[in-house]
Amino acid sequence: MKTKILAELRRASGYVSGQALCEEFHVSRTAIWKAINTLKKEGYEIEAVQNKGYRLVRVPEILSQKELESIRQTKWLASEYYYLDETESTNMVAKKLAEEGAAHGTVVVAGRQTAGKGRRGRVWETPPKTSISMTYVLKPDMMPGNASMLTLVMAMAVVRGIESLTGLEAKIKWPNDVVINGKKVCGILTEMSAQMDYINHIVVGTGINVLNEEFSDELKDKATSIYLETGKSVQRAGLIEAINRQFEHYYEIFMETQDMSVLAKEYNTLLVNLGGQVRVEGGKEPYVGNSRGITQRGELIVDTWEARRLVSSGEVSVRGVYGYV
């Protein structure tokens, strides 16, 4: 009931009477009063005025099941939230839930992740109360060969979500990183369980540096956070909701063709190294060329001095010639 009361207070432009809440949720005024007091203890600033009711004055930076559910505005994504204060990996949890029958659109969120995975076996660890670690469970009716493009769709959603909430200009470093001012702020890892011609489920995991105030010497030259770029605290739950809305929008466009044909033009405007030199590593022999955007299959087009090459994500890494970007 606390989640429903919180959602009702958010929707209201002013005060909500205690009687209206009683009638809405079929409970006593005492039950409403107890729920309001519990919300206050959790950090929500709620004003109570006799003959007027209750008004939500301020929302703390809090990440919880209740907070996420109370601000949800998506149609099908996040129809089910699974929140954990701490876990090894949201992708691991999401895969287990998917195998146990979790619905399409289920979202796993953790306050802290201790053993998350990045591409090429890297570890993605998030300090407590600073970052977003979340994973979508998707069960699309499409061929397995199209699944990797969902990484690109997720990157677009993260960029537009950050932009809508903060005004920051974020860019995509193909295929699975989001950067701000040339430094990584987000990593994405898509994993799939499938048969030859059938997808059991896809999990799209996303880690975002939000409130981090510093990074290790090893990372400080190539990693950043939204706080470091703005000097302001951003509510993680609000950013998750903004990204969810964007992903739902782009996913529905993607599923119409099950490729990037409709989204490629917009995606290319967000590509950080479009037209610049890149170094492609991880294949038989590294090579350098100029990035020309993506194909409708999500491959990166790279023009070398001898030929045009199409780079598939896989285990290939694309970097700037002189650094991370």
Give a short synopsis of this structure.
With 325 residues, this protein is α+β, with helices and mostly antiparallel strands.
What features would you describe in this structure?
With 325 residues, the protein is of the alpha+beta class. The protein has 3 domains: 2-58, Arc Repressor Mutant, subunit A; 65-269, Bira Bifunctional Protein, Domain 2 (BirA Bifunctional Protein, domain 2, 2-Layer Sandwich); 277-320, SH3 type barrels (Roll). Helix content is 30%, strand content 28%. The strands form 4 sheets. The chain has a 7-stranded mixed sheet, with helices on both faces. The termini are far apart. The mean pLDDT is 91. Keywords: ATP-binding, Biotin, DNA-binding, Ligase, Nucleotide-binding, Repressor, Transcription, Transcription regulation. It is an enzyme of class 6 (ligase).
Reading side by side through the largest sheet, how are the strands ordered? 3-4-7-11-10-9-8
Q: Spans with pLDDT under 50 lasting ≥5 residues?
A: none
- Which architecture of the largest domain per CATH? 2-Layer Sandwich
- Distance between the amino and carboxyl termini: 47 Å
Radius of gyration: 22 Å
Count of all domains: 3
The count of strands amounts to 16
* The CATH C-level class name of the largest domain: Alpha Beta
Structural class label = alpha+beta
CATH superfamily caption of the largest domain: Bira Bifunctional Protein, Domain 2
General form: elongated
Counting H and I runs of at least 4 residues, what is the number of helices? 9
Strand composition percent: 25-35%
Classify the helix fraction into a percent range: 25-40%
* Main beta sheet: 7 strands, mixed
Domain BPL/LPL catalytic: 65-255
Binding site for biotin: 89-91, 113, 184
Protein name: Bifunctional ligase/repressor BirA
Family: Belongs to the biotin--protein ligase family.
